[in-house]
Amino acid sequence: MKDNNNYNVLIVGNKGREYALAQRLQQDERVNALYFCLGNGGTQDLGENQECEHYEHIVELALKKQIHLAIISEEE
Question: Where is the Phosphoribosylglycinamide synthetase N-terminal domain (predicted)?
Fold first, then answer.
């Protein structure tokens, strides 16, 4: 990661674990913005929920928002 304090983070998932992770990341002064692919009602208060129907949409979002870190949640 870069040595500045402007990290854009993308979290892919929409469960409680993603919300809990986002809460902690939001407290980190190095995190500039949080984006969620799908997200949920709680994550919309922490960052921007985005529609991501296919992996191509995730790639487009990451490029558009200049994502520095992507966290892909495990799904069942």
Answer: 8-76
Which residue type is seen at 69? Answer: L
* 3 state DSSP class of 28: coil
Q: Is 66 exposed, middle or buried (0-12, 13-18, 19+ CB in 10 A)?
A: exposed
Q: Is 70 helix (H, G, I), strand (E, B) or coil?
A: strand
Task: Give the distance, in angstroms, between the CA of residue 39 and the centroid of all CA atoms in the same chain.
Answer: 8
Instruction: For residues 46 and 39, give the distance between their C-alpha atoms in angstroms, rounded to a whole number.
Output: 10
Per residue in 18-46, pLDDT (tens digit) is 999 999 999 999 999 999 998 999 999 99
**What ranges do the domains of the chain cover?**
7-72
**For 72, how many CA atoms within 13 A lie in the half-sphere containing its CB?**
6
CATH architecture of 7-72: 3-Layer(aba) Sandwich (3.40)
And the tokens for 33?
């913005």
